[in-house]
Amino acid sequence: MNIIQNKPLEKAEKKTPFYVSPFIARLYLVFSILVLLATTGLWSYLSARIQLVNADQLVNSFLFDQIASVQNALLPSAHTFLLKWPLFLFIGIKGASANLFTTATVALVVITVICLVGIIYRITKRPLLVGTLIFAVASMLLMTPTNPFTGALLPTNMAMLATRNIEYIIYIVGLIFVIRAKKLLSSAFLAGVLLLTLVISSDKLFLALSFGGALLMLAIYAIWKQWTFVRIAWHWLLATAISTGLALATLFGLNALNVTHIVGSGKAIGPYSINFSLHDIALGAIYAVIGLFTNFGANPVRDATKLSEMPKVLYEQLGDISTLSYLINGILLGISFVMVLLLLRATLIQKPKQASRPQTPVVLSAMLFASMIVAIISFIFTNHYYSADARYLNIAFFAIIIGAITYANKKTWRSAVLVSTGFVICLGIIAGVPSVLENYQQEKRAVSVVNERAVAINQALASHKVKYLVGDYWRVLPVNLHKQDDFTIAPLQNCTEYRQTLTSTNWQPDLNKHSFAYLLSFD
Q1: 2: part of which helix (H) or strand (E)?
Q2: Which of 427, 403, 287 lies closest to 341, judged by CA?
Q3: Which end of the chain, N or C, is less surrounded by CB atoms within 10 Å?
Q4: pLDDT at position 185
Q5: What are phi and psi of 328, to 5 degrees?
Q6: Partners of 470 in beta bridges
Q7: 53 with 153: CB under 8 angstroms?
Q8: What's the CA angle centered on 283, arms 150 and 155, to 5 degrees?
Q9: First and final CA of the chain: distance in angstroms?
Q10: Residue 265: its pLDDT value, please?
């Protein structure tokens, strides 16, 4: 079957047994969605509770609790989170609390997952196929850890306000509009430009993904003389260029109008410099592969922060029942990756007849895969802590899932195979839940000292009234979440200097003129 052109889909089964009748198939789909929502609610809630001690999770909403704080805020240009400002404003006005942070985080994650399901359902409406893929998505997301390793306050999964989640959906929808734009300056093209502008203004990583992905797609399909794809890639590149200009103008306007202050990081795209060390590049390549497994819930050795520790941790993990879930997810990742490669191979070797446009899901799969390759290259060739930064590869999850369902939709699958696969995945999900709960308890114990300190500090300040609490950024923000008295935090980036990003000049008083308590950090 031609997997590029718009051809009518063949029926999946000539004769449907009783257990896969249309009614049962719909029940199967509904059940898979319920499982996805239940597991998503579980891991997002547990992760949100852990991230309550993460200063990066809290700071934006604290900045938006007063107009003066926002106007004098110092936000990094690499990730302004402009897209989420209304959410930060809502939390700040309502009074930032642990329950509100948790509710908002879970709601944002659920919306993101529902949107992904909506995109999948737009690609195919075959209930057994969609249901099986949804089971796979549920399993992978469930086993994606909260943090890269226990005690590391850096997000790996999407359950944090100050990380990328809904941004991926906005990016994907923007690409869909660009694909559907038959001419420049059409309403679809302009809609794509506006969505890309919004997401690039929020996070410069999407500038790299979009610009680099467009160039990569343009070059590859030009070499293979697939001119329809080349034309779409050119539209994508042009849309990215326009969006970048609009994004820069937007951030400049926010500064000029004194809405807030966007502080440049000194880098063109992100906070990291180019890596020229062959050793580090090789290390980055290894951790890029490990990071992909992590993002698909298939990494049983995530607590091993050194490569030399991984064999031992893996051996110890083999006796745990959650190994079944990791194994299933690893197999699903391998199968899905092969499906995407076969899909893209067909776009290179088959020439569209009469220059007709390829299907939107096929082109979208190519664009997301190109973005994924750019993310991997950026991960490898920039200088950062590889073992803790798998979050920079999250675009791969969306790219592989959408590419796999696009390919699978063009094939005939036996009902028994789909249902059996779904059943096996469900067993893996059941096997993985105890591990998720155990990992939560480990994370909770690891960060419990932060909560204990916050309570103790608030009790001390209740007896010794001061106007400011001065201390390390990572220590004073959690204290502010549970504060009982009227004091203002003054975050430091070292022992004596105020922090220069993710703060406000309102939080930088002249300590010669105000009472303050200094939070001394020994670690």
Answers
A1: none
A2: 403
A3: C
A4: 87
A5: -60, -45
A6: 490, 518
A7: yes
A8: 30
A9: 62
A10: 46
489 conformational bin, left if phi > 0, alpha if psi -120 to 50, beta if neither:
beta
Closest residue by Cα to residue 255 from 45, 70, 446, 412: 70
In angstroms, the CA 509 to CA 515 distance is 10
Residue 485 CB coordination number (10 Å):
12
Q: If residue 261 lies in a helix (H) or strand (E), which one and from where to where?
A: strand 261-263
For 415-448, write each residue's pLDDT tens digit.
Answer: 999 999 999 999 999 999 999 999 999 999 999 9
Q: What is the pLDDT of residues 260-287, one digit of tens each?
A: 999 974 444 456 788 888 999 999 999 9
Please tell me the pTM assigned to this model.
Answer: 0.94
Name residue, tokens 């610009």: 211
What is the gyration radius of the CA atoms in the chain, in angstroms?
24
- Residue 402: which of 175, 208, 158 has the closest Cα? 175
CA distance 165 to 158: 5
- Please say whether the beta carbons of 150 and 303 come within 8 A: yes
Structure tokens at 189: 């093209």
Residue 506 pLDDT > 80, yes or no? yes
Place of tokens 């050119």: 234
DSSP 170-225: HHHHHHHHHHH-SSTTSHHHHHHHHHHHHHHHH-THHHHHHHHHHHHHHHHHHHTT
Give the CA distances from residue 197 to residues 187, 201, 303, 360, in Å, rounded to whole numbers and listed in that order: 15, 6, 37, 21
Quick one: how many helices (H) and strands (E) in the chain?
17, 6
Q: How would you classify residue 44: left for phi > 0, otherwise alpha for psi between -120 and 50, otherwise beta?
A: alpha
CB 114 within 8 A of CB 135: no
- Separation CA 352–CA 354 (nearest Å): 6
Rounded Cα gap, residues 329 and 34, in angstroms? 19
Answer whether 144's CB lies under 8 Å from 328's CB: no
- Residue 466's closest CA among 441, 490, 433? 490
Q: How far apart are CA 267 and CA 257, in angstroms?
A: 24
